[in-house]
Design goal:
By secondary structure, this protein is an alpha/beta fold. The chain is built from 10 helices and 13 strands. Strands 1-2-3-4-5-6-7 form a 7-stranded mixed beta sheet, covered by helices on one side. It has a 6-stranded mixed beta sheet with strand order 8-9-10-11-12-13, covered by helices on one side. α9 (about 255-270) links the parallel β11 and β12. The N and C termini lie close together (about 10 Å). The structure holds zinc ion. The site of zinc ion has 7 residues, from α5. Zinc ion (ZN) binds near residues 67 and 278.
């Protein structure tokens, strides 16, 4: 974190020293950082967005806990992509998804191992007559066991601090990628995946053609879902409406910044028309490719300029 922000500070200094005073003052935000953060809360208005794509209907729940949950409608069943940060939130989300389509949940896909995407899963096992398939990258369970086991005490302490979990009610504005972290509202509902893959998985579930691709970035086990018939992309946490967490304040392990750029390029190669991210609002139309391109360029810029300055001997 420090490393990247120091780099950004250096870059801003270079930019400001190359601009005239007039240009710099135009770039100065008119609102304070707190006001900007309050404005950003609009991104997390509690709501289910529904889209009619060429392949069928897709619903996305935003603002319930920290992460989104997505439901893709199939012929005789539906698929959930990311199960929310708790069974508490999953229960509220599913009560709204069911109003859209009441068919059984045939599969739950994890975009990666983080609890805000996986801790709601046991809710779907206890409410469905037939056990849904749990699908993830082959390394997801390894990383999950490490978080729940080996590094649990320190990661919990750091995450609690980073997400402002213990702040008095009303003092937390939002946590950047969501309104608040609600993992402690119910017991951990992570369920071990039973269908995993290495590089890619093409599978048909409930009449839905799914393509899953390993996409290292925000985590090493990250995947993205491409629905060719729906022209729809679920990028997991490799894109959301904040600057990418190339390094987290809570000090998680190394994030593959160059791999992140490659993963975004892989997504762009499909020319998606709908984007259903796991944090912040969905996008459609021309904004999808524009956003993917700006995002990958920003990450590559930080990476390349950091390496350039490292090669000059600069240190964090
Ligand atoms: Zn997340």
């Amino acid at each position: 974190m420090k490393f990247n922000y120091i780099f950004v500070a250096v870059f801003l200094f270079i930019v400001s020293s190359c601009s005239s005073e007039n240009e710099v003052s135009q770039e100065t935000p008119k609102t304070s950082k707190v006001e900007q953060l309050i404005e950003h809360s609009k991104e997390f208005e509690k709501k289910v967005y529904s889209y009619d794509t060429p392949g069928g209907k897709i619903h996305i729940a935003v603002g319930f806990g920290i992460a989104n949950s997505i439901m893709v409608e199939g012929i005789d069943g539906n698929i959930i992509i990311d199960s929310a940060d708790s069974t508490f939130e999953a229960s509220e989300i599913y009560s709204l998804f069911k109003l859209k389509n009441n068919n059984p949940i045939k599969a739950v896909i994890y975009t990666h191992n983080h609890g805000d995407h996986t801790f709601g899963t046991s809710f779907y096992l206890t409410t469905q007559e037939q056990r849904p398939k749990i699908i993830a990258h082959e390394s997801t369970d390894f990383y999950m066991q490490r978080i729940l086991g080996i590094i649990e005490p320190i990661i919990t302490k750091r995450s609690t601090r980073m997400f402002g979990t213990t702040l008095p009610e009303g003092e937390l504005i939002n946590v950047g990628i969501g309104p608040s972290l609600n993992v402690s509202k119910s017991p951990i509902g992570y369920v071990k995946p039973d269908v995993t893959f290495d590089k890619e998985l093409k599978i048909n579930i409930a009449g839905i053609n799914l393509e899953l691709y390993h996409a290292p970035g925000e985590t090493n086990d990250q995947l993205f879902v491409w629905l060719p018939d729906h022209l729809s992309l679920m990028p997991g946490d490799n894109i959301y409406k904040t600057f990418p967490n190339l390094y987290t304040i809570r000090g998680t392990t190394h994030r593959d910044v160059a791999g992140w750029v490659n993963s975004l390029d892989h997504m762009r190669s499909f020319n998606p028309q709908f984007l259903f991210p796991s944090h912040t609002k969905p996008l459609s139309g021309i904004a999808v490719m524009e956003t993917l391109t700006i995002y990958r360029d920003a990450i590559q810029f930080v990476h390349d300029q950091t390496v350039r300055l490292m090669n000059k001997g600069l240190t964090p």
